[in-house]
Write a structure and sequence with these properties.
By secondary structure, the protein is of the alpha/beta class. The strands form six sheets. The protein has an eleven-stranded parallel β-sheet with strand order 8-11-14-17-20-25-28-31-34-37-39, with no helix packed on it. The longest helix has 29 residues. The radius of gyration is 26 Å and the shape is flat. The termini are far apart. The model has no long low-confidence stretch (mean pLDDT 95).
Length: 343
């Protein structure tokens, strides 16, 4: 729910996002709404021409849009090159996330050997273990567990029930959502006859600044050395990042991505939902994987990559699946025919 006390004039918003205002600068808005359902005191945005039809019917006080789309309405508008980016920046002004006060909740358990900034907030039932450091204005939501020798950077927020095992370092201004687990064991076991011998995972996890980690995502600790997530990386819910993975600056992983051990993801990569990699491979900077793509070897140049088969009616898919198993023999026969023709 929006905070009704937050009100901004169109002039203030235009200055904030670097937009050109067409309309009354003194007009105030108290929140953001969807184009089709916005109230008369709300701002909305239009980033795609296919929604232009809704522009005429909107009740919004003003709309963020491009110069080209602004010609379609007489309504007050904030004109900019990227309405979606402008919307993102305006949304932060109306952020309704509750603000935590400074201090340590009486029910929290903080080891005497831990260091907690006086500007930090430690919520109910948190546990902060020995030699952990909680820097200025960091926020630990209720039920968080911070293991030994961890560091949580200034301005970083851990929502309720985030768990950091030992030797996890988190940079400044990060966001970790509920249920995230950082520093659990990587999946390292050596076969011993019919049994498995655990390989001690003696590395840690290092997150840079401005990293976002989604709910119920797991980032495993390194076996030898650290698992590293560089500055500006965003990771969605329910992702699995295995031991000794490195993810480069400003890369983005959508929900249920899975990165196997020791894989290296370059900078500015995007992995759509359900994409995954085998271990010990590298993706160059600027690689983009479409949904459900499975990477089985390194990709050395930027660009979009896909794998798998598209959806089709089940009966057709069953016939196609039979053909998949015949492709090798078909290719061999084709090669033999080509050889005979060439002879």
């Amino acid at each position: 729910m929006e905070d009704r006390e937050k009100r901004y004039t169109l002039a203030q918003l235009a200055e904030h996002i670097g937009a050109r205002l067409r309309g009354p600068g003194e007009l105030e808005v108290s929140g953001i709404g969807a184009l089709a359902s916005a109230r008369e005191d709300q701002l909305c945005f239009l980033a795609d021409k296919k929604h232009l039809a809704q522009l005429a019917a909107t009740n919004a006080a003003a709309v963020i849009l491009t110069e080209q789309m602004a010609t379609a309405t007489e309504r007050p508008v904030l004109i900019c090159g990227s309405p979606y980016l402008a919307y993102a920046r305006v949304s932060q002004l109306f952020d309704c996330t509750p603000q935590a006060g400074r201090g340590i909740h009486p029910s929290a358990v903080v080891h005497p050997g831990a260091t907690v900034s006086g500007e930090a907030s430690i919520g109910a039932n948190c546990v902060v273990e020995s030699d952990a450091v909680i820097d200025g204005a960091a926020v630990l939501g209720p039920g968080c567990v911070i293991g030994e020798r961890c560091r949580v950077g200034a301005g970083t927020r851990l929502h309720a029930n985030v768990t950091l095992y030992h030797d996890v370092s988190i940079g400044k201004d990060c966001i970790l959502h509920s249920g995230a687990v950082l520093g659990g064991d990587g999946f390292g076991f050596a076969p011993d006859g019919g049994n498995w011998v655990r390989i001690a995972q003696n590395g840690g996890v290092v997150l840079g600044d401005n990293v976002s980690v989604g709910a119920n995502t797991a980032i495993d600790r390194g076996a030898i050395g650290d698992t590293v997530i560089e500055d500006g990386v965003i990771i969605d819910n329910l992702c699995q990042i295995a031991h000794n993975v490195r993810i480069g600056r400003n890369s983005a992983l959508a929900g249920t991505c899975a990165i196997a051990g020791s894989a290296v993801i370059g900078a500015n990569c995007t992995l759509a939902g359900g994409a995954g990699t085998v271990g010990h491979i590298e993706l160059a900077d600027g690689v983009h994987l479409t949904g459900r793509t499975m990477v089985t070897k390194s990709i050395g140049q930027k660009g979009a990559w896909s794998s798998g088969t598209p959806m089709m009616p089940s009966a057709q898919w069953r016939r196609a699946a039979v053909r998949f198993s015949q492709l090798d023999s078909m290719a061999r026969r084709l090669a033999e025919l080509e050889k005979k023709l060439n002879d």
